[in-house]
Amino acid sequence: MVQSGGEIDPIQRYLSAAERAGRQGVDTAPASLATADRSGRPSVRVVLLRHVDDRGFVFYTNYGSRKARELAENPRAAFTFHWPLIRRQVRGEGQVVRIARQESLRYFASRPRESRLSAWASAQSTEILDREFLESELARVRARFAGKEVPCPPFWGGFRIVLDTVEFWEERPHRLHDRLLFERKGRGWIQHRLAP
């Protein structure tokens, strides 16, 4: 067991290595995100983790989506990044909180116009009749905001996964992989090495 400082150095090293390998970096990093409802029934999907800092990992969604509803009932989540080209993965678990509205507004304003329009057009995770319905909703939203800025919908914004634990896995020969687990302790981290 090794005591570590306030930041976990391998996160940035892994993300930098993934970028150098031609993979996307953290601003568009696909991760599998697992949530569970009040009863503990799990669900998982791929999300784009848009930002990482010493407070945690941030992703954005419609607050009416299934993942957002589950997080309202059970505000904990787990995620995994996997980069097969560099033979590494990162997985973490923690409490999930909504980010400040100003952060969501800033990020939304940076998105392409079509993505901002889509956020208004799609009632994420609700059943729709067919593809034509979705396209007609997008056409309606385009007309509504023609020649205007597209504001951030009140039902859309970000969540931050505040990590309790994070594990770094690196492939090694003969399946003797490296696994380093960091566990939050106060303002720092305790490092454990795990058997593969």
Output the keywords.
single chain; 196 residues; alpha+beta; Pnp Oxidase, Chain A; ten-stranded antiparallel sheet; 27% helix
Strand-helix topology:
Elements: E1 2-4, H1 9-20, E2 29-36, E3 42-49, E4 51-53, E5 56-62, H2 66-73, E6 76-83, E7 88-98, H3 101-110, H4 113-121, H5 131-144, E8 156-170, E9 178-185, E10 188-193
Antiparallel strand pairs: 1-10, 2-3, 2-6, 4-5, 5-8, 6-7, 7-8, 8-9, 9-10
Helix pairs in contact: 4-5
Structure write-up:
The protein is of the alpha+beta class. It has five helices and ten strands, in the order βαββββαββαααβββ. β6 (76-83) and β7 form a beta hairpin. The radius of gyration is 19 Å and the shape is elongated.
Estimated structural class: alpha+beta
What's the overall geometry? elongated
Query: Can you name the CATH architecture?
Result: Roll
Please give the share of residues in helix.
25-40%
How many structural domains can be distinguished in the coordinates? 1
Overall pLDDT level: 88
Spans of at least 5 consecutive residues with low confidence: 1-5, 23-28
- What's the tally of helices? 5
Radius of gyration: 19 Å
Element order, helices and strands?
Answer: EHEEEEHEEHHHEEE
Amino-to-carboxy terminus distance: 16 Å
Provide the CATH superfamily. Answer: Electron Transport, Fmn-binding Protein, Chain A
CATH fold naming: Pnp Oxidase, Chain A
Percent range for β-strand residues: 35-45%
How would you characterize the largest beta sheet? 10 strands, antiparallel
Strand segment tally: 10
CATH class: Mainly Beta
